[in-house]
């Protein structure tokens, strides 16, 4: 339409009085229309104008509410519901920057391009719209409004430390409710404001906040659109939101729109983050404080000149592409999506065969999906409504009454009432359409009455759920410095006004479980005077307590008796952990420091006692060169090093270096380099805690039960866990490293190329069945071939070895006995083990010296013969049979310990 009258764009940040200016300008004219972005805001502005001019001249038109007196002069509407072609003197659109909104932007863009007042038109919004408005609206005048108060960034703050008169912003219903519940427990209660609430519920909730019943407001981003509340601080619980298609980060200008609710009039405000929201980076914070944002370059647009000749023509006109480069085609809205769905139905296509029917179908498709159940269900509902309107010209009264009656129930919880409110909004919207139902005024009043009843019930549930009135009263008394009588007995039980409220556990006050959230916090505050001297007395007693009263848990906790008083945290050195104490802030820094010093003394002494060999190794100044470097590796590994990780270092050590290290108790095993004294249960338990701290693990793996030779290897254990626990994983089980070395001594003399069987000693030291032992050997790199054979039975049971040999010698007579008995021969399973070559264990074993089992000590000097003397020590395994012993033979080059044996031979 042609431009008429003066056009002004009033741009600037929040709290500049733009909306107030628009109301003043509208009332200066005889007639006017103002379009607002939210139903809640429209109701607020309507109430303001009614208070000035009275209800007889003010109309309110939203999708679900229509109050139109006969002599209406001033129309307050949502942007989507603005009447067209009225010829009003004044017209204003608020929050014009929503032209760039992905969902509703095309509606605002249409009003920007086509809606005008006869004498004055005013667009209100962010300064980011200056460029597009200047390009698209000829003759526009710009007016810059500055914020009346400053807005400062306050960083991150816990909800428990949130200042009064704060609004915490979430971006989903679940998030809002969770935060409100947390604030109720910690602060006494919160009001809840969301765009989905009815104006009646929202106003009742806001009144709770405004009159001081609660000091906190939890809201969605709905508060960013012009709602004026007494908010000092806005905290974002998240900086991402779901925009209808995906989760995305909020832009700085969007954050600013919400943050700007803090500070009203000349009162300054702050904004920040809380909960899981990351702190804003400096650039974003500066942009919000200085109100400088990236200009909007593209506006969402959808064709408003629709063609209703056919369904295909209508859809084609809705999908036209804009010709102006400042405009971009809006993404498919819900109404167009439903139209496309219904267009595929044969019955709908048959009905929508003329212009009037197509236009009616489009009007039905524009019913919003307030219920949000699913696209198909919404389309099915609209199909039914269209069928009634097309066939009968009206929605049947009985059918409509049944839909409303099903919803008119005020029982149920918050979610149930919220769903009913969403459902009644659909029927409220339908009742507002002219000519769709008989007795329109009756059904408008009826649906409005149902909404009011549901709104009141929802307000009551919200208040019951998220406001603790007893705690609110106590908080007020504390603010007014009214003393509350609190006492602490010798058992640490705390009472206030004669009522038990909790107990002192260690150095933290634990509220009674029956006193929840804010009530517990309030009672805690009231108990501080009584708790303060108790904290100091306990700190003195704890500082003088013996180490036997203190212990650490396998998760790094520090206990004083049955009470947790702190936890271990990683220090600069794994053997020097630091302390984090569990002391209430109210106890004061002196108490916290005393508890921390005592716990540090405890853990330092515990490390010194359990890791004495390791600490002695680290302090040995006589170690030089490679020995000193290897000692450092041992200390760094807390006394246990898988040999494969230090193969080259071990090879480089000469005999003197190894001897010096062995003096400190280091054993150079076939699989592991370790200090046997550190494999005891107590050092192992502490080593796992210190290792877990140094690795930054969230959950510390526990130490295996003491005394077990093998344990299940387990899945998902952190890398390096088994070594720290004193075990080595081999297949499905892990074997204790000292026992593994004993097994290695036995395996050294076996014929690993030709194959050998497990003897009873091997099974005995591992405590395994033959099947389990085979799995273990495979985990160590051996092949295990399973076979069966006829079991040879002894004629006489003999307890000693000599009798066993006699029994085996008489074995040939057994078949004769069996021949006399028709029973089938008994079969036994046996395994033949050969070296698989998967892992070479020979490269650094010369220091073992081919030691036979039972000779020497772990970690001692090699017991092989002097260089150049004797024969290779490969005597074969002990066999429990009557056969003569095998002749000594040359070293098998494929034996995994061949390198060590050859080393002895050549030395």
Describe this structure in words.
There is one protein chain. The protein is α/β, with parallel strands linked by helices and 907 residues long. Helices cover 40% and strands 17% of the residues. Strands 4-3-5-2-6-7-1-8 form an 8-stranded mixed β-sheet, sandwiched between helices. It is elongated, with a radius of gyration of 42 Å. The N and C termini lie far apart (106 Å). Mean pLDDT is 83; it is low at 801-819, 839-889 and 903-907.
- Tell me the Rg in angstroms: 42 Å
Annotation field: number of helices:
31
Estimate the strand proportion.
Answer: 15-25%
Anisotropy-based shape: elongated
Q: Runs with pLDDT <50, length 5+?
A: 801-819, 839-889, 903-907
Number of strands: 34
In short:
By secondary structure, this protein is α/β, with parallel strands linked by helices. It is 40% helix and 17% strand.
